[in-house]
Design a protein that fits this description.
CATH architecture of the largest domain: 2-Layer Sandwich
Mean pLDDT: 96
Structural class: alpha+beta
Low-confidence stretches: none
Strand order of the largest sheet: 13-10-12-11-15-16-14
Bound molecules: D-malate, zinc ion
Number of helices: 14
CATH topology of the largest domain: Uridine Diphospho-n-acetylenolpyruvylglucosamine Reductase, domain 3
């Protein structure tokens, strides 16, 4: 192993195998053979050629914050960590782009953009550890999609090494490029199954004006979308998020914030707007009063300072961390925005009826139709039995998702976690085309095999 590729840092100690063999997904066991740390695209190419020759599978690995086990090595694979390829290479102020290596941390890129007068808008709670290459591989979404779209909209160019060992320089940062299939887009969201992303050119935009956050409480699920419509009709929302009283209970109990209202409500929505004029703030408050009069909103608070914006966001962003000790079984689904209440009401009723012992934390990006459903492990139930019971919920939920024409994964990806349910969202014809594409890019099946689907 040590002589795999001349000059390539390779680790096989137990600690590294355990750390780098997995991502944030629970309920899997990492079993990699080795971890390698390339520093250049050419080293990645040499590694892929070596892997083809030696019939060894590679698992591309970024910040390992994924939640679909796409970065797990469970079967003696070599993990390719991009963390040593962590340089920001170029800011082009005329093109409004930043070119960087794949291992740059999301927050570092965001900060670099901001310090240079720009804004990189893809944002989510794992920003401090996730890497740009991983964001591209999962087409990361997060909390600002409602305004700025997904990672896909911001990738202007990609350098990749395919599973056959070709280095491709895709799209070359062109705004317009009408020369056939856009292979760059194929790599975005491919979960590391077509090749290894080594360099990314991202668009950046103007910085938003002062953000203002409203946190509103309601006891009625249908009101969540009525509040959304009321604000969406008057503002270009920066975010529209939802969480429940159960989520808030864990966040406050873990010391991540304080309850916002004297009397708790069942549901909370976080509305973020860009305050371009004082009139806009007045408009936001006027909508709040109207919603209160109609009984749609029971209580609310509005940020008065950047610190209050941060504090209100903490109530939403710290849900994952505050519940992680309860070994949550996570789901991340989407339906069309208009179907959110129907899905939420039906699904929560089913879980309550069939699994009364389950505590469920609902939250998510409801403005995008994306819901996170986290079932917490009851004390006293073994992990295996818990997972078995959660899989029963999966079956019911994914049938419902299929009926509502939604997706079994809105933003976390398929990886290992959702592959048995891919056909709830994608047709057999689509899946077979995806498999053919995989074979073209990775003829020897050495790049992240077994993720998304089995061949
Ligand atoms: C979030 O929205 O906070 C993330 O998708 C993480 C999670 O679902 O735990
Ligand atoms: Zn999310």
């Amino acid at each position: 192993m040590a002589t795999m590729i001349e000059g390539l840092e390779t680790r096989t100690d137990e600690e590294s195998l355990k750390t780098y063999g997995k991502d944030w997904t629970k309920h899997f066991t990492p079993k990699p053979k080795a971890i390698v740390f390339p520093k250049t695209t050419e080293q990645v190419r040499d590694l892929v050629l070596w892997a083809r020759k030696n019939k060894t599978a590679l698992v591309p690995s970024g910040g390992r914050t994924g939640l679909s086990a796409a970065a797990y090595a469970t079967n003696g694979e070599v993990v390719v960590s991009l963390e040593k390829m962590n340089k920001i290479l170029e800011l082009n102020t005329l093109d409004q782009t930043i070119r960087c290596e794949a291992g740059v941390i999301t927050e570092q890129l965001q900060k670099y953009a901001w310090d240079n007068g720009y804004y990189y808008p893809i944002d989510f709670a794992a920003r401090g550890s996730s890497q740009i290459g991983g964001n591209v591989a999962t087409n990361a979404g997060g909390i600002k999609v409602i305004r700025y779209g997904l990672t896909r909209q911001w990738v202007m160019g990609l350098k990749v090494v395919t599973g056959s060992g070709e280095i491709l320089n895709l799209n070359k940062s062109l705004v317009k490029n009408a020369t056939g299939y856009d292979l760059r887009q194929l790599f975005i969201g491919s979960e590391g199954t077509l090749g290894i992303i080594t360099e990314v050119t991202l668009a950046v935009t103007r910085q938003p004006k002062e953000p203002v956050v409203l946190l509103l409480g309601t006891d009625d699920l249908n009101s969540i979308m009525e509040i959304y419509t009321a604000y969406r009709n008057s503002f270009n929302l920066l975010a529209y998020e939802m969480f429940t009283d159960v989520a808030l209970k864990y966040v406050t109990a873990q010391g991540h914030g304080t309850a916002p209202f004297a009397t708790p409500t069942k549901y909370y929505v976080l509305v973020e707007i860009e305050k371009e004029t004082e009139e806009q703030l007045e408009k936001a408050l006027e909508i709040f009063s109207e919603l209160s009069e109609k009984g749609r909103v029971l209580d609310g608070t509005v940020s008065q300072s950047p610190k209050q914006v941060t504090d209100l966001w903490k109530l939403r962003e710290n849900i994952t961390e505050a519940t992680s000790h309860k070994q949550p079984y996570k789901n991340d689904v989407s339906v069309r925005v208009s179907r959110v209440p129907e899905f939420l009401i039906e699904m929560s009723d089913i879980i309550k009826k069939e699994h009364p012992d389950f505590e469920v934390v609902w939250f998510g990006h409801v403005g995008d139709g994306n819901l996170h459903i986290n079932i917490l492990k009851p004390d006293g139930l073994s992990s295996d039995d818990f997972v078995k019971k959660c899989k029963q919920v999966d079956r019911v939920m994914f049938n419902m998702i299929e009926r509502l024409e939604g997706s079994v994964s809105a933003e976390h990806g398929v990886g290992l976690v959702k592959k048995a349910f891919l056909s709830s969202t994608r047709s057999e014809a689509e899946i077979s085309l995806m498999k053919e594409i995989k074979k073209v890019f990775d003829p020897d099946q050495i790049i992240n095999p077994g993720k998304i689907f089995d061949l």
